């Protein structure tokens, strides 16, 4: 029997036994006479897609019927039939067309976990796998009876439609996998808003998680990437129903739209380097999450960081603006009001669509309704698919889930009460000419400054890069490192000249940008600010350490750049960002179920073990915390930020310094109080999150109360309790009482290993840590990380 192992994005084929190879069918049709068994596949005529049985991981004994790309290494699954009813691999599954012309998936036990009923009883009914990836049940005359495109799982292929028929109450949604290797129905779904035909919504269970902007420009969205045009359209009528469709231009490489198990919607394109490239992604920032700011406020995504702001004419309703805003002057029915235009807005949710109105009629419609708080208008005359040739949207209550984006085109017309205006004609006559003169003078000065700066930049750009390279080569002392020097000009191009739209993070060290360098490689570019506490020594330290240390659980450095006073580091791009973005976020912490958390814990432990013991030198990180643990697409943890790390050679295992660096709350007592550090300092940071409150719950026999509600249902209690006990051992007050990371990894990965009982940690312990001193005359560099309790 052939068994094929798949995940949501890849698979591991297992070779079929030789004596079965002659039985495998490779045509594109399923007929009464030719059923499909485990080990067989249907392959479309153009050999683009294959249909057969697969297993989601190497240890699974369950089989699923699915469709995947035939010519792509790794076999990416795009459709699953029996996602919630897997078949045992030993039960001889079979897909067949029955005598009643039904399409039935069955097993040797008589079970039928999936079937397509058919009202046409004919021996001429066939099922065909098309080159579009669509699996179609056809009548003898070639008409379609049923097709997989009408029942997508977690992926939309070009030509797939998601329908919404309010009259027939037919609502179809794209539903994510439950996990990376679990095809069953997950918590996230995508579909047209049943209360409107103009917008797409991602739900987490029954609650809105993300709402895509109401499609403008004739209700068509999309974009262009490497000569491929991506189309997204909503079409239809209120009588026949509406649908969302995804398509690409002719001759394009493979493309798909996928909703993953963490609620991310990605448009993916196959590139020439045998990998999938993310072209578009939602959510792209915290502003995209539903209701990230309160009523009558909006999330401003045009600056360096997403910020909640009150709409014009509103003020914060409390100390926290994210809870919403209130009017500075209340509207009163019968009294005069006016509209202010807010450009480049993501329009609010919960609107009323008024059909067939001009812009003037739309304005009048809102003005004559005392309950109307805002309106928006778009002409849809260029879209023949829409029966209504205009879009007049009205809001009559709170304005929720509103945002501002530099690449959006919608205007929101907000209704405000009129305020008395004092007119001082004499003052106006003086101020206006004066301001005009000042403005003209300022423009002249700015023009002169830009002209001189441009000439200076052109003169220095070439020799600046060379001088930076030579200077840095001297600074690192001739180290032979496996990474590239990248020109500042290439980095500026990759980040659109460090545009805000490319920024994915920031901190005291500077800003982090996402970019694409040569070869379509997605990278993260860390640009150190000129006022950063991380100086040239820490910059040099981080490059040498990361370039020399290679481990699955350490972030990979790809290159660096020095240009004048610019210092930049180029890392592999990790799409899930840092661990703290999940742990301390009320919306995202439920994504970390217990198996994922346990794998992250073990991965960090293995990374520290490599630093302390398995690498050529003993490396102490000194700043281990959740924000320095990055996560890749498979949630594999990678330790980052080695600017504060120290290296020990020979038999030296500990040292002392007057320069205490790190983050309060994660530093060991002996390090904070006396500057003494060793590998046990990192061990303390590893277990710091359990500290004194964990001891009290442990002593009272209440350790299970530490289990977070987001993963209480699917966790292994023994694993959780073992992690709690190991964590308590790691935060012991005396370094000698803490285990080495080799012992930590052994205790967590071996359930039979006996664990010593932890001692009660003191708030401040007695210093008894003798070591060879390594003193530096400099100021302490300590940061404080403020987090919200969970």
TrEMBL record:
EC number annotated for this UniProt entry: 2.7.11.1
Domain Apple: 333-417
InterPro entries tied to this protein: Bulb-type_lectin_dom, Bulb-type_lectin_dom_sf, Kinase-like_dom_sf, Pan_app, Prot_kinase_dom, Protein_kinase_ATP_BS, S_locus_glycoprot_dom, Ser-Thr/Tyr_kinase_cat_dom
Catalytic activity: L-threonyl-[protein] + ATP = O-phospho-L-threonyl-[protein] + ADP + H(+); L-seryl-[protein] + ATP = O-phospho-L-seryl-[protein] + ADP + H(+)
Signal peptide: 1-26
Domain spans labelled Protein kinase: 498-790
Subcellular locations according to the entry: Cell membrane
Coiled-coil segments: none
Residue ranges occupied by any Bulb-type lectin domain in the UniProt entry: 27-150
Residues bound to ATP: 526
Domain of life: Eukaryota
Membrane topology of the entry: Single-pass type I membrane protein
One Gene Ontology biological process: recognition of pollen
TM ranges: 430-449
SUPFAM superfamilies registered for this protein in UniProt: alpha-D-mannose-specific plant lectins, Protein kinase-like (PK-like)
Gene Ontology molecular functions: ATP binding; protein serine/threonine kinase activity
EC class of the enzyme, as a word: transferase
Gene Ontology cellular component list: plasma membrane
Keyword annotations of the record: ATP-binding, Cell membrane, Disulfide bond, EGF-like domain, Glycoprotein, Kinase, Membrane, Nucleotide-binding, Receptor, Serine/threonine-protein kinase, Signal, Transferase, Transmembrane, Transmembrane helix
Family membership noted in the UniProt record: Belongs to the protein kinase superfamily. Ser/Thr protein kinase family.
Record-given protein name: Receptor-like serine/threonine-protein kinase
Organism of origin: Triticum turgidum subsp. durum
